[in-house]
Amino acid sequence: MLTHLLLILCKIQSxxxxxxxxxxxxxxxxMAQAQTTIKNGGLENWxxxxxxxxxxxxxxxxxxxxxxDSIMNVFNFMSGGNTQVKTQVTKSTTEKNSGLASAKxxxxxxxxxxxxxxxxxxxxxxxxxxxxxxxxxxxxxxSKPVLASAMVKYVPASIYDSANLYVExxxxxxGVDSVIxxxxxxxxxxxxxxxxxxxxxxVDKSLEANLLxxxxxxxxxxxxxxxxxxxSSLYVDxxxxxxxxxxxxALMSEIKVSCFPNPSTDVVTVSxxxxxxxxxxxxxxxxxxxxxxxxxxxxxxxxxxxxxxxxTYNVKDQSNVIVGHGQLAVVRP
Length: 333
Description:
Layout: H1 6-13, H2 19-29, E1 46-51, E2 54-62, E3 66-67, H3 69-80, E4 89-92, E5 102-106, E6 108-110, E7 114-116, E8 119-121, E9 124-127, E10 133-136, E11 139-140, E12 145-155, E13 163-171, E14 178-187, E15 190-199, E16 201-202, E17 211-217, H4 226-229, E18 233-243, E19 248-250, E20 257-260, E21 267-272, E22 278-283, E23 289-295, E24 298-302, E25 309-316, E26 321-330
Parallel strand pairs: 19-26
Antiparallel strand pairs: 1-2, 3-8, 4-5, 5-18, 6-7, 8-17, 9-10, 11-17, 12-15, 12-18, 13-14, 13-17, 14-16, 18-19, 20-21, 21-24, 22-23, 22-25, 25-26
Helix pairs in contact: 2-3
């Protein structure tokens, strides 16, 4: 699935340990997994964790995201008994596009595994019984995406290194994940945060798009020259996607939006947990724009003249990015 993971897979599979090692890995992975219900597309909120063989060093993980830090450090420990912990994904408060922080991915050298890029994904990362990586979850989609975007800044160790972003669209029919669309971009260094846009290509347009997955990598792993890659740093912030309806959504929006009462017969209140200069738009089932109203905090909307049915509401920020959305049922007595 991800060609950038092949090097890591080969290294890990070449040093499999007895089954007790798997229990160590699983217990450590649980400390640094994505929780897709947490909203953190701007990478503002972080949590810390520790590994069972080193309780003095913290691993940092953005909430709602996963890194490979715990997995790589546990395998490094299992391979050579090294208790030193390398943190390849950290919170940066100095280099950011907006808000308070961004995610910094750094290519590092582990004592027994060698050179490893930093990885960041909005999936849950696991291992199966054969020590192969598994990826589950992702962003639940309102409609089919055509463009994946992020604000990135890349500081490579040399002109020979490059960073990568790979995205995939997944259909989950009958509980089985099938990749139906994908996009990728390999990019060189840039001195300032730059918007990276990746078109999504579909191999099967007939299936519904259910999940969107992002994979950020701080180095091009086919290169084996240490000096070309060591300490290459990729900063990631403000991840979004655009759908076939030309609507741009914040990935895992940090603004909690609610609409109540729902169902409603008369007046509804739309509220946002934070933000200002927001706009609420409500569309009918046929796509007709019923209303568009600016607001700060909350606003009341009269729906008593509307026909009974299910409507879609979007809340947009100053950049016209949808930070919250949902459905409103209008009923008649």
